[in-house]
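Entry:
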Amino acid sequence: MTNLVMNNVRILDVEAGKLTPLTSVLVVAGQIKAIGSNITLPKKCQKIDGQGQCLMPGMIDCHVHICADGMINYPAEYETMTALKAGNELKSMLLRGFTTIRDAGGADAGFRVAVENGIVEGPRIYVSGQPISQTGGHGDNRHPAEKADLCGCAVKSGFGRIADGVSAVRHAVRDELRRGADQIKIMGSGGISSKADPIDYEQYSMEELEAAVDEATRRGTYVLAHAYTAGAIKRLVTAGVKSIEHGNLLDQETAKLMAEKGAFLVPTLVVYYKIIEQAEQLGVSGDHLEKTKIVMAQGLDSLKFAMAAGVEIAFGTDLFRPSNKYQTEELIIRTQVQTPAQVIKSATLVSAKLLGEAGKLGIIAEGAHADLLLVDGNPLEDISCLHNDGEKLSLIMKAGKIVKNTL
């Protein structure tokens, strides 16, 4: 792996929310070795002139679905077709500046291994395997007219897997971990795209939720949960769920509880905007559209409540093919209630903390992974320079390897 030094750059300090004076960053063996104006360089070292541009950590999207197609979580197609399409999505996400992603359901460990072994070029991937859902929950994609299977305790349902009862939930968690999941996804409330459950349907008993958390915790990982309503979120964080996905109908009281429990919020606002904008084109049903309007109307308020309570807010998008091209629009939407510095911190430092990678990802510091973006512009003043498919990203580096360089 090539050693290199990036000179004449201004580092975006994501913790302080400011740019440093011009400096240099030395990268050795895929990690940041030294930062400063008087660095001792290795004998063989590639030199890059950053031309005074902004150097920031690679961004992290904590809620993607690389295998999802259209408004249906999984299309009726061969798994190999899905995998090949996902490979293209991974490269595109990397070129938008996302050097790390967390797949929030659908992708198995094979995608992570493929990227690690250089078979596919893409971001670092943290996979959740198949989301675990109760019968009739958000992960149960069967049409209401379909009859239940004779053994309905552990049914696979395409995108998700169905598990009812404490023992079945424990088995499902253990099996997803056996198959290489980095963390566990459960469905904790109704959803906008599922056919059989209203948004305010609180899913799983407390005993089932606690069983999922117990199994994940004993394996050294955590549970993330799909949830919209305050009632569902209260139950989930009380059971020990670490990461609340969406959370659009969060209230002030529940936000305070989240902060007390140390739970993270992962808003995914852009997906609702795109569903409404493209409803006819995407073939969105009337019921789906009405649910979307309900959660979208309160999405920004949930951010305000979380910020006021001191909840850690990570970054997510929840998009799908072909809408992943709007991934960076989430940055723009959030500036309606957050400063650019807060949004960037969410997409770097906070998201890294959620993934258990504080100090390694989402930061430019000695010992951190060299996942770096060189930006032609100051995103603290104009965050749109991180938008538009990475056109203002002069250089993208992941693990010390340059994947784009237009300097």
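The two ends are 21 Å apart (CA to CA).
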